[in-house]
Amino acid sequence: MSPQNKPSLLSVLPFLVLPPLFWAGNVTVGRAVRDDIDPIALSFGRWVIALLILLPFVWRLMYRDWPLYKQNWKRIVATAIMGVAAFNTLVYIGVHSTTTTNAILLNSCIPVLIMIFGSVFYHQKLHIIQIVGLTISLAGVMCIVLAGEWSRLVHLSFNPGDLIVFLAMICWALYTLWIRDIPTTIDRRGLTGIQIIIAVAVLAPLFFWEMSHTTTTWTLNTNAVLALAYVGIFPSVIAYLAYTTAVQKVGAVRAGLSIHLMPVFGVLLSVFVLGESIHLYHVMGIVMIAIGLILSNRA
């Protein structure tokens, strides 16, 4: 992307900020309802709700772009499976047996994975300022997650749930790179719609299999309904539309770096919604993440 064609940070800010804002609550919600809703059921229900909301607005775009879908069906199916069906399902499965802290920490691996896969498979050249920005941003994430006490790294423990979450991160890194290869002539709103349809079709047999083998007693109480509504609207419809637009505008690496904003929004939500206290390490981490993102965008 040439300097004259590169959009300003301000013009793409909403597309970079909204996804991690809504995803910040996704991991927490998935863990909070783990005793009420099975993971595949939560993922399936999430995308059914998202499809019902989005379809009335995008079906005309999908009809118009159908010839383009057929031309690019391999990329579209691959991104739908990896980034929509597999990623979210693996996260929900993983948080059944890992902590929110570990899940957020593993999320911070996504920009690193995007850089590695981009260099290996796409021969992308990394600017030194991008690497510096990534390092500073990653350090900011660690500062928040570890509460400013780096000695906690020694005591972090990992389990099979962490491996499952890490597999989800690999799926998302590949999704971010592959979505860039889908021609910009395909409207991103219609693209999101067709990806969700594919994901629902993939998840449906898994959902029915899970229902026939589950020991969980479904309790669709107020919390479960609100959880399904949240994950079906905000981290699904709005966040995916914004993220695919961000990848189109600024590229996979810069868009991927916005994932580091997740712990920032986690802190802000806990302060303003839950009334928790903000500490110096929160401020330091937020500043480091901001500096890292700005440096990377200037590369």
TrEMBL record:
<feature type="domain" description="EamA">
    <location>
        <begin position="15"/>
        <end position="145"/>
    </location>
</feature>
<feature type="transmembrane region" description="Helical">
    <location>
        <begin position="101"/>
        <end position="121"/>
    </location>
</feature>
<feature type="transmembrane region" description="Helical">
    <location>
        <begin position="75"/>
        <end position="95"/>
    </location>
</feature>
<feature type="transmembrane region" description="Helical">
    <location>
        <begin position="160"/>
        <end position="178"/>
    </location>
</feature>
<dbReference type="InterPro" id="IPR000620">
    <property type="entry name" value="EamA_dom"/>
</dbReference>
<dbReference type="InterPro" id="IPR037185">
    <property type="entry name" value="EmrE-like"/>
</dbReference>
<feature type="domain" description="EamA">
    <location>
        <begin position="160"/>
        <end position="297"/>
    </location>
</feature>
<dbReference type="GO" id="GO:0005886">
    <property type="term" value="C:plasma membrane"/>
</dbReference>
<feature type="transmembrane region" description="Helical">
    <location>
        <begin position="190"/>
        <end position="209"/>
    </location>
</feature>
<dbReference type="InterPro" id="IPR050638">
    <property type="entry name" value="AA-Vitamin_Transporters"/>
</dbReference>
<feature type="transmembrane region" description="Helical">
    <location>
        <begin position="128"/>
        <end position="148"/>
    </location>
</feature>
<feature type="transmembrane region" description="Helical">
    <location>
        <begin position="40"/>
        <end position="63"/>
    </location>
</feature>
<keyword id="KW-0472">Membrane</keyword>
<feature type="transmembrane region" description="Helical">
    <location>
        <begin position="255"/>
        <end position="274"/>
    </location>
</feature>
<keyword id="KW-0812">Transmembrane</keyword>
<feature type="transmembrane region" description="Helical">
    <location>
        <begin position="280"/>
        <end position="296"/>
    </location>
</feature>
<keyword id="KW-1133">Transmembrane helix</keyword>
<dbReference type="Pfam" id="PF00892">
    <property type="entry name" value="EamA"/>
</dbReference>
<protein>
    <submittedName>
        <fullName>DMT family transporter</fullName>
    </submittedName>
</protein>
<feature type="transmembrane region" description="Helical">
    <location>
        <begin position="224"/>
        <end position="243"/>
    </location>
</feature>
<keyword id="KW-1003">Cell membrane</keyword>
